[in-house]
Protein: HTH lysR-type domain-containing protein
Amino acid sequence: MSIRQFRALEAISEYGSFAAAAKALNLTQSAISMQVAALEESLGVPLFDRQHRPPRLTRAGTVVLRHARVILSQYNDIFDALSEARPYHGSFRLGVIPTILTNLLPLSLMRLREEEPGLTVNVSSGLSGELMREVETGELDAALMHKPTTLGTALSWRDIAQQRVVVVAPPESTGETPQEIFERHPYIRFNRSAWVAPLVETRLSELGISPDTRAEIQSIEAIHLLVGLGFGASILPDVSTESFARTSLRIVPFGEPPVYRTVGILSRTDMAKKNARRIIGDVFAATAGRPNTLKKDG
Structure:
């Protein structure tokens, strides 16, 4: 028996098939099959009923999986305990959504440079759905993103910040309500594929607003510039009032009660860099003024 074999077993159970597990672990399907076969041979029992498509766990397989998860957790705890005893040295691949790039990220990286000089954070940007897939496949160590509605057992989540969604209007605008703003200005929509989009659309419907959409953009900086030039108004997470103030943009409440979205750090539960994840999470949480709350959602 080996850790790799237990990871293969857990991945098949989590993702539902040998092929999906192989993709998640960056292995070939034949490699996954060989690991399961070797585990079955060493235990002397079949772990999957291969008469079904996709194969499903046998009763023995369910028992082995339960114990394998305990072993994997304890195995990862060894590295966590060792890493706690010494400064962290190494790289960490972090994905971030566009609304974080120009506010929480720079301040947090400055703090990390001071507090953890041996830690290198390699940052890439994308929308929450893209980042979640890259975390699942191991392309990213973690992602700072919009909170998923559901999580499998292979993923862990830590809340970092609550962000109020607001109307961002040109400096010279005079409307005091969302209705007045969008009666006088066209709408610059933030990418509708972003996970915050359903919150925005629901509130627009509740307010009876059908804005005149003239542009749809993924870049927060570009939206800020267009609003500042008077091109139109937008609806964005209010991640940093300072960033809006620097461009003299007006912030108008997006109806009552306020609409909030949660951002946090998503990672795999079996990741080997848990100490780095903790360090990065602590710094981002401190920057956002939020305590440590790591949890798994099933």
Observations:
- The mean pLDDT is 88.
- The CA atoms of residues 20 and 285 lie 33 Å apart.
- Residues 3-83 form a domain with the Arc Repressor Mutant, subunit A fold (CATH 1.10.10.10).
